[in-house]
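Q: How would the structure tokens look for this protein?
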Amino acid sequence: MTNQLPPEIYRRRRIAALVIIVVVILAALWGVSSLLSKDDTSAEQVNVTRDDGKKVTPSGKAAEPYKPSSGSKAKDDKADAADPAAEQNAETAALAAKKDCSLADLQIKVNSDRPNYGAEQPKLALTIHNPTGGECVVNLDEQKLRFEVFTLGDYQRVWSDLDCNESEGQGELRLQPGADAVYTAVWSRLTSAPGKCTEADRQQTAPGPYLFYGLVGDKNSDGYTFNLG
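A: Here is the predicted structure in token form.
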């Protein structure tokens, strides 16, 4: 037969266990509360005594980082920016100092006798300039000189003087330092293409803006715009 303890003993054990659990919970809560109180204390503002004896309270706000003034920034940008005029002058001086000259050194510019036309035929001009300090010799039989016109809107080639005619430049071109050579051509305002030179092939161009280029070999001018009415 198993001996059983009186019910009073079991009841006392359960009460003791509950008391221990409550004590442990209270101890844990007290520890957490102590830590929070410590953090709050460390975050409190303190008074600081200045050199003149007055007390001030720091704001606790972080100082703004240093930012350079807009004036100094603008000054730096200005210093870094290249001077186009100075660069152009330096390039011109370098070319003038060259004692040899090639096609790549030549400068080609184009224009026309007017920017806008009614029924007139455009008179186009091509100027070749030698900017170097040496004589420039170009064989125009090999490096073909030509005039070309394109539509400005969709950049379609509509005419070249070489399609149906000989080049305006023939033989050997000799340019002394600083010298120019000027060639002109009159455009009939008719379209052309290589091998398309009959009256049936060539059509009247439509009114509108056009772009004119001058070329010598693979050296070309900037585009020049004019309008046909």
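The chain is about 30% helix and 25% strand.

The first helix runs from residue 7 to 42.

Upvote if useful.
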